[in-house]
Amino acid sequence: MGKTSDMKTLTNIDSEYKQAREGCVYFSLEDFCLVEAKGKDVFSFLQSQTTNDVLNLAIGSGLGNALVDRKARLLGNFSLHKTSDTSALILIETQQRDALIDQLEEYHFREDVEWNKETSFGFLLALQGPKSPVVLDKLTQSNVGLHNTNDIFTANIDGLEMQVICKSLTGEEGYLLACSADHKENLLQALSQIDDSAGVVPIGPETRETLRIEAGLPRYGRDMDKTHILPETGLEHTSVSYHKGCYIGQEVIARIKTYGSPAFALMGIILEGDSLPDLDATIKMKTKKIGVVKSSVYSPSIKKVIALAYLQKDFRSPGQTYEVSLNDEPAKITTCLLPFYQTAGKTERAKQLHQQALTLFKKEENLDAPITLLREAIALDPKFAPGYEALGVMLSKQNKLDEAIALMKRLAEIDPQEIMAHTNLSIYYMQQGRIEDAEMEKAEATAIQFEKLVEENQAKKAREKQSSLEEEERKRQVEMFYKVLEIDPVDQVANFGLGSIYLDTGQYEEALVPLKTVVEHYQDHSAAYLALGKTLEKLSRKEEAADVYQKGIAAASKKGDLMPLKDMQNRLNQILHSGS
């Protein structure tokens, strides 16, 4: 294992991390650059060379993209942002830039395409966090509004015109601001003048790396390189089109998606202990190699060490814990789908988009609009299972079966017990004439359904047994309480226990006497007032219940019993509001 996280460093990171998750932070992107691609053939040329569908881009939109060789080995990954019908900006790590352009130039003959490495956007700054839209509005003194991931637009900040790209590098809302290197200080000065209510602060490289890994974003040269085929890296979910024309490496990528999955693929692992694993540490189960560790960090959100890792396909079910060795040292890991961190806001937004897509699907024959919404939902929340199923169904109706199959395989990865993933795969394989594959998926769906029925039956029996035990325990307690009351008719514990049991079991008339006895003889018993009030409400005697709650609130206030006090206040307000 590697080094243990330094506590002083973690303390510094915690403060910056909290700001990134709750407010807004910024950091310069000195390791990234923008390359301008222009010419009347630029998009048709890139369409034939790269993995994603650039021909259908609208001006102002963008997408993730990649370049692979004929064996689908990853030569570079980047995002492309269309600025006009004949130009685009390529956002890429600086270390990849020259190799990417050299590789593209090998296939550049007569096409009207030019590359400009020295653009006027020499300074890149990332603005990230849930309040980044607020900060950007303040910087531009305008309402920027909602944009999709990878959209690009021009903004005026403190009299300077610059490009803004919508992109998250942290798992939160985010933008990249691009301006001339000469105007770097002007931009930083404008940021420093934002009022404290927006909460924007700079963060260091350690916090940035923590956020990157939690967001599940692999880095070229560290987590992936030309030794990896693209489907191993997870980039196919954001950087590959399965229905565009031919490009170099397409056959291999399509074949892997259609007929299986790569032997190793990038996932997340959560590790026990405080030590960070070594980069490229070999993960073994006994003597068998099952994975390789890549970037790792202590996660403030999970409060454990996390890492990106390539795992063998038999060990990629999420939520599984394994006793393994890392470079021959014992360790315990738990598998996890990426990203490690997902904002609740994005999941809710994905649900809304999913519902909108289903509504459109019922009303319209054209599937393009709901399909677009579902793609956006999955982009927002890569673990949103309903989005995969709905998108797969709609794509199958457009006869885009390869992509529908890929989506169902991803759904099976997200939830190995999802019956519909295997049922749909069976249907799609049958439509392709792949009878054997269809029968295998049908058998898998049947097996899962049988397992669920067995589990449900066992759970039902367990609930019935538990219910029976609880009923026997209640009878025993009732008998005990009555024996106590024969000796002392006003015993506090026995009366309250008896009244509570009768209330819980719906015997409201029987509950009245013991609960009234408690409040008459023990006038500071807050819980008894609450139980008696509930009983009277159940008997539709709301005026009496309100009177009991008022007395109970006074008693609870004196004792400082906050929980019954709040409950009685809420119930009293409901009664008074109803006019009873």
Looking at the structure, the CATH topology of the largest domain is: Gyrase A, domain 2
CATH class label of the largest domain: Alpha Beta
Terminal Cα separation, in Å? 68 Å
General shape: globular
Summing up helix and strand content along with how strands pair, one would put the structural category as: alpha+beta
Strand content: 15-25%
Count of helix runs? 20
Count of separate structural domains? 4
The rounded Rg comes to 31 Å
How would you sum up the major sheet?
A: 6 strands, mixed
State the CATH superfamily name of the largest domain: Probable tRNA modification gtpase trme, domain 1
Provide the spatial order of strands within the biggest beta sheet.
Answer: 8-9-10-7-1-11
Q: How many strand elements?
A: 17
Specify the helix fraction band: 40-55%
Name the poorly predicted regions. none
Assign the CATH architecture of the largest domain. Answer: 2-Layer Sandwich
The multimeric state of the shown protein is single chain
Mean pLDDT: 90
